[in-house]
Amino acid sequence: MAACRALKAVLVDLSGTLHIEDAAVPGAQEALKRFVTNTTKESKQDLLERLRKLEFDISEDEIFTSLTAARSLLERKQVRPMLLVDDRALPDFKGIQTSDPNAVVMGLAPEHFHYQILNQAFRLLLDGAPLIAIHKARYYKRKDGLALGPGPFVTALEYATDTKATVVGKPEKTFFLEALRGTGCEPEEAVMIGDDCRDDVGGAQDVGMLGILVKTGKYRASDEEKINPPPYLTCESFPHAVDHILQHLL
Amino acid sequence: MAPWGKRLAGVRGVLLDISGVLYDSGAGGGTAIAGSVEAVARLKRSRLKVRFCTNESQKSRAELVGQLQRLGFDISEQEVTAPAPAACQILKEQGLRPYLLIHDGVRSEFDQIDTSNPNCVVIADAGESFSYQNMNNAFQVLMELEKPVLISLGKGRYYKETSGLMLDVGPYMKALEYACGIKAEVVGKPSPEFFKSALQAIGVEAHQAVMIGDDIVGDVGGAQRCGMRALQVRTGKFRYLSDSCGPGSFASSDAEELAGANMPSDEHHPEVKADGYVDNLAEAVDLLLQHADK
């Protein structure tokens, strides 16, 4: 079945999946690698620094984040965004015109979610501008307790304008399709390796990729039973996943 | 549609929305909508009973009525059905102590309410007070409660101010609903209890009453679901193009701009069909005085 696929691309989740002792991916030179993550508060430069300190030999254009997905979408739609994103995420949008905006991008940016700014965004949307959400998390954990994520504010604008946002982060299809866009591979020619059964593996399989669930990071026993169809493969860790790919899928 | 004589037969009482019908709020006390001051005066001189039925929750009734009187309107506090007093009633009956996510302008309406150790959240049109911090405070209160209760004064999507369209309480209510996985209780239009209390105040039955408003869903749809008739005005937040036209479509609430663009006037909401569409309150009152039973 899947064993005869021509595998051309491997997407690897970052946190929870890659390990220091596995910096080298032996024999996978024919397979393209892309490292994907849902982070919205770090630019690719920041991520690169972190990974390089962990001795990963990765170049910047091999990292694909949900911010990258948003940027790709903006470029394809040829729109000028009002960017409601964390300041640390701005470098990932360098070069994109933001004056006279005709689109709205919402990420995790509490400092932007005040009435004046949201009202500006609301008026743009009412005029027909598309709403792009990095993700719709309800809340996140801060030192002082739980804090509202972007999800509630995206929902607010969707209700106000009777429109739906395009969500670009995992597990949305847009994320995986955008991640593969630069590789020239079809989803059927790609495999995703990750520790989040729903967001990494489920999301990838929904788009036609093979999903490999690794039992590290946020994995909990029986996670593989939570999606339908189940993961193509559940294995111990990233190196095991790579072994399998090298033996069966190339 | 049937002729106006038929549509307005048997009307004895009129519920008037305020924002978008009488005036547009905004800097310097707002602006009266052309013809509305005289229209209210004519209604009051007639035998029709009049009640103001508003979701205004950014200012107290006293402040609102004061502003309207300064614009020349014949209106007093006793003639207004507003959501804050209705909410206070519910809070007292149910022993609820609210975290108030409100604008300071309406705080005086809650003077009799115990706000210590909150066991619920009341959200109103807080305007500039919808800071991330205040929203987060409300969210944290709800998440700590075993039985989270969220009371929303109305659920309108937006309203018209002189400077343009403004986000109303509805979107922020939805934000907290989504964040906490709960559903708010709505006090104010379009909740049936709210309309009923307005009708009770003037001793008129639903089938003898007509609501005049600028919000096709909240005013018109809500009133009709209570058995009233309702007229939609083309002032205030009324938009000539429906919101469901999708991104990129031309949209404007400026009649002249649209007339020039030769766009079809969209008065076809997918769910709500008003009993009549009029340019403004003045036109509605003309028709009422002509056709409603004397």
Please tally the helical runs of chain A, counting DSSP H or I stretches of 4 or more residues: 7
Radius of gyration of chain B: 19 Å
| Mean pLDDT over the full residue set of chain B | 91
Report the end-to-end length of chain B measured between terminal Cα atoms: 23 Å
Average pLDDT for all residues of chain A: 84
Number of strands of chain A: 12
How much helical structure, as a percent, in the residues of chain A?
25-40%
Q: Most extensive chain contact?
A: A-B, 33 and 37 residues
Structural class of chain B: alpha/beta
Number of strands of chain B: 14
Low-confidence segments of chain B, given as residue ranges, are 242-251, 258-266
Structural class of chain A: alpha/beta
Kindly report the oligomeric state of this protein: heterodimer
Strand ordering within the main sheet of chain A: 3-2-1-10-11-12
Write up what this structure looks like.
The complex is a heterodimer of chains A (250) and B (294). Chain A has seven helices and twelve strands. By secondary structure, chain A is α/β, with parallel strands linked by helices. In chain A, the strands form three sheets. Chain A has a six-stranded parallel sheet, with helices on both faces. In chain A, strand 7 (139-142) and strand 8 (145-148) form a beta hairpin. In chain A, helix 2 packs across helix 5 and helix 3 (115-126) crosses helix 4 (150-161). The radius of gyration of chain A is 19 Å and the shape is globular. Chain A starts with 8 loop residues before the first strand and ends with a helix. In chain A, 46% of the residues are buried. Mean pLDDT of chain A is 84; it is low at 19-32. Chain B contains ten helices and 14 strands. In chain B, helix 2 packs parallel to helix 10 (281-291) and helix 5 crosses helix 6. With 294 residues, chain B is of the alpha/beta class. Chain B has a six-stranded parallel sheet with strand order 5-4-1-12-13-14. Chain B is globular, with a radius of gyration of 19 Å. The two termini of chain B are 23 Å apart. The model of chain B is unreliable at 242-251 and 258-266 (pLDDT under 50). Chains A and B meet through helix 3, strand 8 and helix 4 of A and helix 5, strand 10 and helix 6 of B.
